[in-house]
Amino acid sequence: MSKIGSSLLVPSVQELAKQSISQVPDRYLVLKQEETPTLINHGVEPSLVESVKLGVHDLFNLPIEEKRKLWQKPGDMEGFGQLFVVSENQKLEWADLFIINTLPSYARDPNLFLNIPQPFRDNLDTYCLQVGKLCMTMIRQMEMALKIKPNELVELFEDISQSMRLNYYPPCPQPEKVIGLSPHSDAGCLTFLLQANEVEGLQIRKDGMWIPISPLPNAFIVNVGDIFEKKNIINNNNNMNNNSSNNNNIITVEKEEEEEEEEKMENR
Ligand SMILES: O=C(O)CCC(=O)C(=O)O
Predict the structure, then answer these.
(1) Centre of ligand 1 from the C-alpha of residue 268, in Å
(2) Is 62 in the pocket of ligand 1 (CB under 6 A)?
(3) Which of 49, 172, 213, 251 has a 20 to 30 Å separation from 221 between CA atoms?
(4) Which domain holds residue 113?
(5) So which residues are the signal peptide here (predicted)?
(6) CATH number for the domain harbouring residue 104
(7) Which atom of ligand 1 is found nearest the CA of 186?
(8) What is the position in ligand 1's atom list of the atom closest to the CA of 169?
(9) Looking at the domain assignment, is residue 4 inside a domain?
(10) pTM here?
(11) Distance of alpha carbon 125 from alpha carbon 128, whole angstroms
C-alpha cells in the first residue's frame, strides 16, 4: 500500500496552548470557508459514536510522552502532527491532527493502530466498519438520485481505502489571528464529518459565501470529495444539474429493503 504523502514535523499545538502564552507564535498567524448535507438517522449506533468521541478526547489528552510514540515519522503522514507542511517557513494551523489509515485493515500501520489505547482502538474499528457501510449506502442512493447505471459507482468505490482524521483545536489566546484549518476541499470520495461537541467554527462555502454550520447531535456533515465530483462530472454531465437541486440539507438514510431483511436475519 503506497503512502498517502508526507508532511514536515511540527510541534504540538495542544502543548503550546498549555504554556499560557499571551501571543501566538508568528508561524501560526495568518492574515486572517457550500452548503453540505447534514445526515441524521444514519445507522451508526449512537452509543458507539459517543464512545468514539470519548476515545478521541482521551487520545488528545494522553501525556505528551505517550503521544510522541504516536507522532508522525519523517516522510510519513500518519499519527499526530499536521498535513501538507512542506517548508519550515510555512504558516501553521492552530490545530493538532491525528491521521490514520483505517480500511482495508491491511492498510493499517500496526505500530500506530496497535498503540491506540483500548477500548478506543476496538471502538474505532467498529466505527470505521459502520461508517464504511454507510458510505456505500449513500453511494447507492446517489446513483439512484443521479440516475447513474446501478452499481457503476458502487463498483468504482467499494474497494476504496478509508482514512480518518481527528482534529483538535486547543484554546487560543489570539483566535482572531489564527486559522484552525485552512479552506480546502476534501480529496477523496465522501467525508463523514462528526463534530465532537457544540463548539461552532466549521464554515462551508456556498455561492461565494462562507456559511457557519451549527453542530447537530448525532449527525454527520457529508462532504462530496474531489474524486467523486470529478467522476460524476465526467460521467454524468447532464444529470448532475437536473437532479442535484434538492434544497433540503437534512437527509436521512432510507435503508434498502434488502438490507433491512439482512438485519432482521442477523437479529434473530
Ligand atoms: O474540524 C472541522 O470542523 C473541519 C474538518 C475538515 O474539514 C477536515 O478535516 O477536512
Answers:
(1) 39
(2) no
(3) 172
(4) 13-267
(5) none
(6) 2.60.120.330
(7) 10
(8) 1
(9) no
(10) 0.77
(11) 5
